[in-house]
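call fold(seq) -> tokens
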Amino acid sequence: MNGLSADVSVEPKENQAYLLNPGKGWIIYAGFANASTAAWAKASVGYARYMWKDIHTNDNQFNWAVIDNDLAECVKRGKKFAFGVMSVCVNSSSDWEGMPEWVIAAGAKFYIADGAAGCKVPIWDDPVFTNKIGQFVAALTERYNDKLDIEFIDCSTYGNWGEWHLWGVGGNAPRDAILLQFVDQWKRFDKTRIIIPISGGTGTQPGGYGLYARDIYGFGAKEQSSETPHRWNTCLPFLNHGPAVAEWSFPYVELKQGKGWTKEIWSHDKLAGQINGSKYSYVCLGEWNGQDADTFLQDAGPLVDEWQNKMGYWFKLTLASYPADLANGTTGKLSYRMRNDGVAPIYIKGHRAVVKVALMDNATNVLSTVTLKGVNPFDWKPGETIAQAAEFTFPKNAKGSKLALGVFTKESLTHPDIKLGIDNGTALNWYMLSDMPRGGP
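ret:
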């Protein structure tokens, strides 16, 4: 300030409201129609997984409706959508497969899956296969990169169920150079988030495909057996690089009967163990068939409410001071403290979110906004309180009487899309600093 006005100090009051925020939250699995309105109200994302053959119907021909129909169903509910596409899918008792017959007809080599005589598994380093799966990923990129309603896409073109392992199908894993080539096929997804499966921590050794995907392209990670204690921390190497996604090995209704891989009976403390262990931003709300979400919600409703805010980030403004004369046309400084009570940072592509302050009239109409320079919410790390300050200037405006703060995933947005765990928020996610309880002198 120029000495003409004292600063006002405010101390925001925190709350425990259930916040649906971008880049985090509970995931409902397909079929979406089986999940109740109550379950969808708790979720942020709907997820589905497809077989390659059902979409890539011939050379350079695609049936995108398979994906688009599920995308539309999630959008209809006001949710984001995520998905993966498998090149092979087999259980020991089921002859499922994912590779299109026309790819085999084009000369792709294959072997028969262990225990599933009707399932043809790609020879992973066969050039016909690598070329055709690359063609598919290129087309997928062209269609879905920068789709605002897509939360993430699994990089699931290798391994059984797209999980980057050969359990259940047998055969030999390709050399590392081929695995890195599979990762490289996804490099043009520069706007939509890509998640790499690392079941049991595979690919996270030095030089492994997981760390390569993390370091070169900023991929997040997914653990497909996250309920298993010895896998609670497998996604931890991705902390501060990309979001971690928790998937269970079986639907909840089976896990609670001890029907998972380890035969352990589910206990609710497993949720805290896995989320804290791998710092998950996303966790499955039940699993397949949609209705599993309602079963889990019925059994563990209080845990769903508790961990919604704690998974990923959970920002709380704890103190702020600003000039009393907001609209006098001079330069002022906003000083504040922000605490992250979540388990992870906020993950935005490019690690760049923004904070803006707004000058408002008495009716909270926005008169002017300013982006605070040098402020990036990615720096608000879990378990920490960060103190920051930034200068701002509003044009002189006689109607200006209130100051508000907002956190945005994109500079281009008009109103904030990130909710804070404090009172005094408007319907448009601005937080009214001038209406908060006054602090000390």
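The longest helix spans residues 291-310.
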